Amino acid sequence: MDRIYEIACELSSIPAVSGREDMGLHRLAELCGDYFDRYELTPVGSFIGRIDCGRIGAKTLLFDAHFDEVGFFVSEICEGGFLKVVNIGGIDPRILSASEVLIYGKRTITGVFTSKPPHLQEPGESEKPIKLTDLAVDTGYLKEQLSEIVSIGTPVAYKSPVERLQGDYITGKSFDDRICIAAILRALEFLKEKELPVNIAVQFSGGEEIGYKGAATASYSINPDFAVVLDVTNAYVPDAPDYRKDIKIGGGGSISYSAKTSRKLTDKTVAVARKNGIPYQLFAEPNRTGTNAGAVQTSRGGIPTVLISVPLKNMHTANEVVSLLDVYNVAKLISELAADGGIDL
Amino acid sequence: MIKTIERYCACISPSGSEDEIREQIIGDIKNHATSWEVDETGNLTVFKKGAKASGLKILFSAHMDEIGFMIKYISDEGYLYFDLIGGIDRRVVAGRRVVIGGNRITGVIASKAIHLQKPDEKGICVPISEMYIDIGCTDKESASGCVSVGDIAVFKPNFEHFGDGLIKSKAIDDRFGCAVLVELIKRELPYDTYFAFVTCEEVGTDGAKQVGYRLKPDIAVVFESTTAGDIADAPKSRYACSLRSGPVLSHMDGGTIYDKALLQYIKNVAEENNIEYQIKNVIAGGNDSSAYQKSGIGTRVAVISAPTRYIHSANNVVAETDLESIRELASALLERGFINA
Question: What is the pTM of this model?
């Protein structure tokens, strides 16, 4: 699990706000290119890697995790060195006041979201809804200096180094979905010396947070026979809806049943988990999974897809929390699924 | 001085738990002070003998404590519920990283994911009583092994230079004030001077009340952080003060109407030394001056403040030039010894 922590630290820090995956794609390729026989970068910001098993007529199993992260784009450079920003992906404005960000301009600079001082607030204002438009990013530069560094459209993301909590918990930004990239890379390490019954293709897809476009296009390009989509899922926290109560951090990967994924491949995944004694949990999300699964499954003539999720807390915040043990178990599960090979549905 | 501020800001010393910062300060001043003592409630007072006595008992004061949190309850799920130490806008709390207690346990103030929020919850920050800290424990027993009810927590130390000469960190309020005073204690001073590093400013200026009672100064000058409202979308008339415009002097705030002659004296000294200063243009906030002013038979008080954005948050923002100017002004005041102030 220390190995997963190591990979997670590296991956979490790569800038790749949806739509601007180009900023981090080469760094990603540097980190994981060696895992593959060959790889390519796609025009919409995805990384595609392939490992051939050498068997004639072998089928191809796809692992998908998305590479992009939620964040912001600069929308206005204001007097006093402040930036107005718009959100890219679902951002909760409640967690932004006085928090730190990195601004990926000509050079990377630190910024702090404003928070309105008490003397400027109306009575009871802190109990009212806050909007992103109420805030700005303080860069500490004067406007003229700032205009040299950033422009409209410059991406901004949380600044939040990965850190260990108690036990095997860790916290940091963009575990959605970098932690699943870590799981895939760890799975490939497990499979390294093994003879594979299938070819493995991997897509670290761009654009998930803004409509799954990277997954749709990369899957089209890869044309796999089966796919495993890895994403994160909201673990139960106090005051969350009751139906999430059984999604627990530490309970292993959450395997989803959905009309948008393949029931046969899902059953198969559950069977492989049981056979190998790998902890898992089940989740039902019939219509919409909010992941790449639907885009992959409907690619080309249809690709049987299973969705496995790492339970996570504080999704889309600077301090997402996951368990390394869950990530390890997901890595184990997908490596066993690949090694099992009997994915004839 | 900036390095000292960084070291002081890293201390985990909210109100009532000032031991760590006090030890740091004592380590820095013990070879320079004429005498120093720590009183029963933790205030550190220092006397520095000058070349001569000015005839006035002059006190320079800064507070050691910072805003923070105290653990109130450990839930069956291993979450830590807490309350605030000092005044903190709930909107700067959710989603931040904290350090808890002497063992420096890292925790995250949880924030329910946007996906799980009901429509009427969106954008509305939950009250502090419903917030909790996640340290990675999943039950009460394991959490109780690391943390106890009554343990304190603060925002995770995060000192950093950024922008054009700005600094951001937790607790610049008022560790910068402590650092300014320490700088002065290290020098040879022309006049006898008292210095106080007080506790519990953030919970009601408690330390200053005690120090004022004991020392009975003729003049108390408080070095503090004050809210700068010079941010995007704020009207200039309501800025209170601005970064990069020098030390902030006050006529009046939420706790004190300041000594008029003393304020004029400080302005004169600033002008004679070409130190740019600004006057706080809103009546809000408060500091240890209110305690000194009311102690014993009363004390003449003044405040010299660093304009600070996002005060009482994880990221106080100040300009280095303002801090340097405050040090210069403090130094110039001691040179003059408040003669005829």
Answer: 0.95
